[in-house]
Amino acid sequence: MNFAVFASGRGTNLQAIIRAAKKGKISANLALVVSDNKEAYALKRAKRAKIKTIIVEAKNFNSREDYDAELVKILEQENIDFIVLAGFMRIITSVLINKFRNKILNIHPALLPSFKGTHAIVDAFNYGVKFTGVTVHFVDEKMDHGPIILQGLVKIKENETAETLEAQIHKIEHKIYPEAIRLFSEGKLKFEGRKVNKATT
Ligand code: GRF
Predict the structure, then answer these.
(1) Is 119 part of the annotated catalytic residue set?
(2) Is there a smaller number of Cβ atoms within 10 Å at the N or the C end of the chain?
(3) Whole-model pTM?
(4) Residue span of the structural domain in which 8 resides
């Protein structure tokens, strides 16, 4: 199985995935890194690991649908079986979702369905929750909504700051995202409605 990682920024999750693949913890082949941002540090990480990169800039397209149609074309050319979103800062449309139904994974830095959106870590911190965490889920048409694959829990300590919380969140992300990719690519996830269970056999 071939997969692509989509990233717009720093790419620490990409790095964790590369590391896990190198250690043999993910057997699927990370064949491609796609970015909408030519300055993304994630691209440097990919190049260092000798992974093919493609930049698709939004300014060259008239609509989100046109942009996603270009992504579909590329993914088909590269024989990509599934997609891993790792800090990809774009809303994706049904053009892409329909072609890769239940084959697009995303990671969100909160315990969904709480604290959706782009400021989840700070939102949870400011709300005063005692626990927050990380969610890996399949992508559907609604933002931060699809079936949940794995969640990791983070306890908010007495002297926590938004910065220390962010560090805790990323540490958990880097553990559970490679694990979710492993389970998915080995066919170990089974759907029961919108529930995703680990297969026992
Ligand atoms: C992560 O916090 C992830 O949960 C969110 O975007 C961030 C990406 O970080 N979707 P990085 O680029 O992988 O360091």
Answers:
(1) no
(2) C
(3) 0.97
(4) 2-198
